[in-house]
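Dear colleague,

Following up on Tuesday's group meeting, I ran the structure prediction for the two-component complex that the binding team flagged. I've pasted the input sequences exactly as they went in, so you can double-check that nothing got truncated or mislabelled along the way. The structure tokens for the whole assembly follow below. Feel free to forward this to whoever is handling the docking comparison.

Inputs:
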Amino acid sequence: MTESAFAELKEQLLEGSEKLFEHIFLVHFKDCQQYVMQQDDAPYEVAYDATMDAFLTFRQRIVDGKVAYGNLRYLLTRMARQHYYKRAKKESTVGLDLVSDPSVAPDVKFEPSLYDLLGRGWKTLTKECRELLRAFYYQGRALKDIGAETGTKPDTMRKKKQRCQDQLKTACLASTQGQ
Amino acid sequence: MTTTNKFKDPNLTEEEQDAIIGSFVRQREDTKLKKRWTEKLAKEHNLNREVTSRRNPAKIRKISFLLLSAAAALLFLIVFLPSLMMEDGNALLADNLSEITLNGSRSAAATEDPTSVEILRIQFRDNFQAGDFAAAAKLGEQLIALPAVTDNDRLNLGFAYLRASQFSEAEKTFRGLLAVNSEFASEARYYLGGTLLAAGDTEAGLDELRKINAADGGRLLESAKELLDANWK
């Protein structure tokens, strides 16, 4: 991939378009999976899952601006191998620097009940709220950039986000009281 | 305290609430992506998570890989050892071709009301940039059949043919641009040379590169000189 193609890939992801990344995923998935199987003698299914994890990590790192242009194939295959080590519980002997970023707080581990609860609450949100939360948390976009599209001030965006979070929490709490 | 109870806690701080909701959104979106990718891999690439054969495929593949590697190395030594000490024109050409970028590519997001030509151009560019050059070439063929096609599209189709190792099609495309004295004639000349070299017609390829001069631009001239100076024996 050329540097300009990489810049465009990043731009598309930040704009919320997964199309180009998905295309790259489909073209390179099999090679990456087979590389993990060959290098680490990994079973097929675990290599499949590790490769899937690697592409998700890779995507998120690009969105977060933590991947610079360079030997991307090498980076991706290393990520896939590290995910394999993690899944195969070999992390005590092998470093996981690419898939466990110490500069980012790890995601909260949910009990399945909370994930379901949030899932139910999510469905009650307006489309605008869902898109705002998705853009902020998943596409890594700043509130001022999201607001700039509609000419909304950053302060108003912060209040909007807070309202959406409150709505989600209220819907979740109402759902538990109804049970 | 469980995360569920923490979330219900009225004294939950803004940062804690942010962490929980942020993690939920990321996990939810990742799960959706995984599901879509899994379906696409199965449907479009016949690649499923479950395998039918369980006879230790990883080991079998590893042994096969080692045997094939040994055979390939032996073959390589027998065939190519005499030329190992020389500067490699083919390696230079391969580097050169891998850096081909499309002319006049445009952002999909910038296109608000795409026509069929624009859609094809976007699909072409996406395939090319993803490294699927054969698919890009097929889309390029559809594109150049449309009336609104430009020489830029033809040049890009030539690039796709070249990267997909469809040398005769690439040659024809670049020659077509030269025949009409296109504004991209310089690029067409240079890549026609590269195509002929890649196809193994070294003399014809070098002849085309010798025709590149200062009027074709410094970058093309310099790249042509590098290829001309390399060892092609």
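Residues 105-113 of chain B have pLDDT under 50 and may be disordered.

Cheers,
M.
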